[in-house]
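Hello forum,

I keep getting stuck at the same step: I have a sequence, I want structure tokens, and every attempt I make locally crashes halfway through. Rather than fight my setup again tonight, could one of you with a working pipeline run this one for me? It's a single chain of 171 residues.
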Amino acid sequence: MMDNMLQRDYTEKNSFSSTFVEGKLLHIVPYEAKHGKYILSNQMNHPLMDKDAEFDGDVMNLEQRGLAYTCMINDEPIAAAGMKIIWNGVAEGWVIATNKIWDHPLLIAKAIKKNFARLAKENNIKRVQTAVREDFKTGIKFAEWLGLENEGLMKYYGFDGSHQYRYARIF
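Reply #2:
Ran it on my machine without issues. Output:
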């Protein structure tokens, strides 16, 4: 777990929002690379994602002010999500999570969905796209729940040679 005193002070000063659920406090805070490193160093939310955790090069490059956030429960990063600008009006969406997301799946999913649309609107993003492994059924359902549409299969797109679907949402 992160240094509780330091993280609690940071969380209280920098929260986008806070919610109490079952006696636990959910904070939505700006994403930092250290959150991503922590999430990837813990068991991911699905065995297929453990392969992605082996490739941690992107967690350092996902910090973009106002475009990424972390879901913290009791001062521990549980999930992080955001968008990375590709060019004007177009962004790549991403989500990473530990297996603790399954302790509060609806709470975290709703926070991601709420902030997903908000970030797109606040940043004049017209298109958000993402890649989802073709064998990650939960990820496919989540992308569709977020309102993204399947635009086709990208063969050998993953860093590990996996086939991935391109999903996108137009705002």
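The CA atoms of residues 98 and 111 lie 15 Å apart. If your local run keeps crashing, start a new thread with the error log.
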